[in-house]
Design brief:
This protein has 349 residues and is an alpha/beta fold. It has 3 domains: 140 residues, no CATH class; 34 residues, no CATH class; 150 residues, CBS-domain, CATH 3.10.580. It contains 13 helices and 8 strands. It has a 4-stranded mixed β-sheet with strand order 1-8-7-6. Strands 2-3-4-5 form a 4-stranded mixed β-sheet, with no helix packed on it. Helix 3 runs parallel beside helix 6 and helix 4 runs antiparallel to helix 5. The radius of gyration is 36 Å and the shape is rod-shaped.
């Protein structure tokens, strides 16, 4: 009778050791630390035994092997050798491996929380044997490696969470998170407003009523001032600076330009670098130049925010939603008209 009771106890212990081994080591150390920082008491309690992974592994595996060996011995006293081997295999596989591991893997955090006390007891009992083994593993293999995900993997994780019915991440949050992870791979050239459609004003223009009406109708709040003689942009006009201006003073528009309100970047610079420089300079406009020093376009703070939000921001003053597409259309129309004109000239007698 006692033999059967001991066999049942050993099967249960085998299942506990096997389940705890899988359960604890499916809990990533970095993930547990993040959960603990966020106030998860289960993760905090589990970390106490999970941090020393090699000692925990040696404790659980040694306990599992010892229990399974004892189980085979006690079964040998009940049945013949072949029958004992068959029964022990069936009991260990079904009740000592499959069922506990299936349960522990699904509820690792909860089961681990309640099993910490038991694990500490096993660790104390087996410490004289497991401690030297754990120290040897620490020297040979070192501590556990941190799990580092790439940006693509993080995006996939966010997407998986978004698709789960239990997730609190919605479509907007997924889009913005993906934008924040990918905007730094884009260059200034990819998002800039091309020079062909940038609204510029010559710096030597006299400020009169017609020019004020023109500036108001464009809807732009910041306008680059172009120096035609030197073929460069040297300042930015803030439309708000013209409020209350007396037209009778006959001032040139360059007198209102701000020379320290923009930055200059190369077209190949990444957007995260451009954003950092804009914030450092407390500016809203980056003038984009190529390797030959030719002005190619401009990038605004709004352009970068659009890349992060993954949406086109259109306010009440925007007459064209996407200036890049508008520039392409203009170029296509110009090319088409040029080809058409050349064709007509070639057919003249």
């Amino acid at each position: 009778m006692w033999t059967y009771i001991i066999v049942i106890i050993l099967v249960i212990l085998s299942g506990i050791f096997s389940g705890l081994t899988l359960g604890f080591f499916t809990l990533n150390l970095g993930e547990l630390e993040r959960k603990a920082k966020l106030g998860d008491t289960r993760a905090t309690k589990i970390l106490d035994v999970r941090r020393n992974g090699n000692l925990l592994l040696c404790t659980l595996l040694l306990g599992n092997v010892a229990v399974n060996s004892c189980l085979a011995v006690f079964l040998g006293t009940i049945a013949s050798g072949v029958m004992a081997a068959f029964i022990s295999t069936a009991l260990i596989v079904i009740f000592g491996e499959i069922l506990p591991q299936a349960i522990f893997s699904r509820y690792a955090l909860t089961v681990g929380y309640y099993a910490v006390g038991l694990v500490k007891l096993f660790r104390f009992m087996l410490y004289p044997i497991t401690a030297p083994l754990a120290k040897m593993l620490d020297k040979l293999l070192g501590k556990e490696l941190d799990t580092i995900w790439s940006k693509r993997e993080i995006r996939e994780i966010i997407s998986d969470h978004r698709d789960s019915p239990h997730s609190t991440i919605d479509a907007d949050e997924e889009r913005i998170a993906n934008g924040a992870l990918t905007f730094s791979t884009k260059t200034a050239r990819e998002v800039m407003t091309p020079a062909s459609v940038v609204y510029l004003l010559e710096r030597d223009l006299l400020l009169n009523n017609e020019l004020l009406v023109e500036i108001r109708n464009t809807g732009h709040t910041r306008i680059p001032l172009f120096d035609k003689a030197e073929d460069k942009i040297e300042s930015i006009l803030y439309a708000k600076d013209l409020i209350g201006y007396d037209l009778e003073t006959n001032a040139v528009i360059s007198s209102f330009g701000r020379t320290n309100s923009h930055i200059i970047v190369q077209e190949h610079q990444k957007l995260d670098v451009v954003l950092h420089e804009l914030m450092l300079k407390k500016a809203h406009i980056a003038l984009v130049y190529d390797e030959y020093g030719i002005f190619n376009g401009l990038v605004t703070l709004e352009d970068i925010i659009e890349q992060i939000l993954q949406v086109e921001i259109v306010d009440e003053g925007d007459k064209v939603p996407d200036l890049q597409e508008y520039a392409k259309e203009q170029f296509a129309d110009k090319t088409k008209n040029s080809v058409s004109k050349n064709t007509d000239n070639s057919t003249e007698p």
